[in-house]
Amino acid sequence: MTDAELVARTRAGDPDAFGALVSRYYEACRRFAYHMLGDRSDAEDVVQDTLMRAYRAIARYDERDQFRGWLFRILTNQCRNALTARGRRTRRFVQDDLALEQAHAPAAGLQLGAEHAALARAMAQLDPLQREAILLKYAEGLEYTEMAVITGVGESALKMRVKRGSERLRGILGSRND
Amino acid sequence: MNLTGAVLLLALAPLIGGPVREPTADFAQAGLRDAARVSVDSTVWRQVQFDAARFDSVTASALREILSSAAERGLPTAPLINRALEGAARKASGTRILTVVREYSAALEQARTMLGTESTVQELEAGASALRAGIDPMIVASVRTTRPTGSAYVPLMVLTDLVIRGVPTSTARDAVTSIARMPKSDDALLGLQSTVAKNAVRGPGMAVDALRRYLRTTVPAIGPPPAPAALDRKPIRPPPS
Amino acid sequence: MTDRNDVLPFDAPEGHDAALAAQVVAMYAATPPADSGAADRCARAVLAQSMHAPEVGTSGLLRPRWWWGAAAAVLVVAGSATLWRSPALPRDAATSVTSSSPQSAVVQPTGAVTAIDGGDGVRFDLTLPAAAREVALVGDFNGWDEKATKMARRSKAQTWSAEVPLTPGRHVYAFVIDGTRWLVDPLAPQVPDAGFGPSNAVVVEGGVQ
Fold it and tell me: Which of C129, C134, C126, C137 is nearest to C160 (CA)?
């Protein structure tokens, strides 16, 4: 069944169709969010927010668009929001070092294995928009035209972000190899 | 012991050949209706009505095995019998009933690992529900630390409900644990659940907004006031007295 | 460094670093996967929070769907403790309107559980948005037997009630309409669907917190 057919069924009220769409795209969304945010729990939360917004907006989805691109537009927005909120967020709750509770998720690199840890830590130091562009271009393998539709940003600017982001990563990784 | 009684009842299920779809008057009269007093732990006695006519013999014998296995592992059997009865009442197939009971048994065992062997049956059931809702076992365990001497089932129930309604798990966990460690906070926890439930239907993000508003009025701020972010121009709100 | 303009004065050359790209791809591929049920749980959570307008069955009743999110846990105080009261709890509301889905507002059943004055036990009330011939309360406390606790229709047309001697603690329950349709209280705490459908949980206080 194509994405368009699943979307049509979802609009008609078929919960299994939506479940199938989620199955198709959950892991891809989660993986992107995981590398954007560097935190497994945050990534899952953002993906859930994304899918909820997608569900509510499904009536406005145009079948001529690629579903993945449409979904990723929502996802990248949600990732950006999460990063902005993280910068502003303050701990309202009691700080408590519970023996069994993870107070802070470890850096993504630690969960990826040593060989990728350095790169993951370097990615975390990038400007979020550069990180986003690098993930879309290198990791997701998208063309700049597709990235422009997803991010709403012009191709030239996206190319610049990838270029500068790559240079910065090289700089960070290079200095680590000393 | 109680298990023998349950086994006998199960073994005497009269229907053979297929799951019970529609309990007819004949079966209701012919089947056994008996009260099996199930002793679960030293503090809780539950009376479980068990109508063996509601299961076919294949399902009944499989249930017997699940129950005896659970009992051997020291798990309470009343919750498992209740799930089986619920399945029969909902006209579920024997296969479905067995799957649910097996999964519930595993969830109870994991809940016991996370919550401690001294936990009451109700805590285990609430913990099992939380696990079945997809809540991470470590988070279930962290709820226990908020109630080292008291009962943990209300925090677990509220946490489960919030997650089912779509509140992100970490947000729900933070909210529930911050309230639960306050004294006599069951009322406050259920107030949180009620507020989130009513607001969740109003739109996306409304549940979390309501949760945060509720917390601000419920949990006294502890710790130094946060430094404002560079772009945050709002004045720092003094902690509520 | 953020790029605000989407038009640059020059056509930026692609700074494609193939070796770096390969490293990123490898790192991406090494992402630890989510557990197998994560996608399904996520879909359920989304659907639970976004209730469709339910279809109306031929008899005029709302048909409960497995993903009707909302089990309400109502704290019921039995015995000597005081009754907990939420100021916003709609005890007498016949209907509550929800509008979380792209479609129009839907009418939900409303439930309430209250302590019986002076006695042991609680009263379950359920207000339905449509007519029913009979309503039964089922739960762990009566072996899920529809014949055990039939609810009585109160003078208010579509409100049904039943009184049950519940012991302190947590109890799981649901409602059966006309012997065939299962219903949950949308605002009460929910017990996750384990394969049978959703149900509610209620807490009867009376023991030590």
Answer: C126
User: If you ran DSSP here, which 8-state letter would residue C150 be given?
Assistant: B
**CA dihedral sign of residues B219, B223, B224, B226:** negative
* Both tokens assigned to A31: 């993986």
Interface pTM, i.e. ipTM: 0.82
Give the chain C residue whose CA is nearest to the CA of B182.
C209
Cβ–Cβ < 8 Å for C189, C200: yes
Look up the pTM and report it: 0.51
pLDDT tens-digit readout, A42-85: 888 899 989 989 998 888 888 778 899 999 999 999 999 888 77
Beta-carbon count within 10 A of A28 CB: 15
CB pairs under 8 A between B and C: 161
Q: 3-state DSSP call for residue B57?
A: helix
Cα separation of C202 and C189, whole Å? 7
Whole-angstrom distance, CA of residue B49 vs CA of residue B82: 9
- Which residues is C124 bridged to in the sheet? C113, C162
Instruction: Give me Rg for the CA atoms of chain B.
Output: 22
Contact B168 A49 (CB under 8 A): yes
DSSP 8-state class, residue C186: T
Cβ(C17)–Cβ(A134) below 8 Å:
no
DSSP letter assigned to residue C126: E
What are the tens digits of pLDDT across the range B144-169? 999 888 899 999 999 999 998 889 89
Q: Does A153 touch chain C (CB under 8 A)?
A: yes
- C201–B158 C-beta distance less than 8 A: no
DSSP string, A59-89: GG--TTS-HHHHHHHHHHHHHHHHHHHHHH-
State the Cα–Cα distance between residues C183 and A139, nearest whole angstrom: 46
Weakly modelled stretches of chain C, pLDDT under 50: 1-10, 52-105, 207-209
The pair of structure tokens assigned to B239 is 């902690």
Residue partners of A116: CB distance under 8 A and separation at least 6: A109, C23, C26, C27, C30
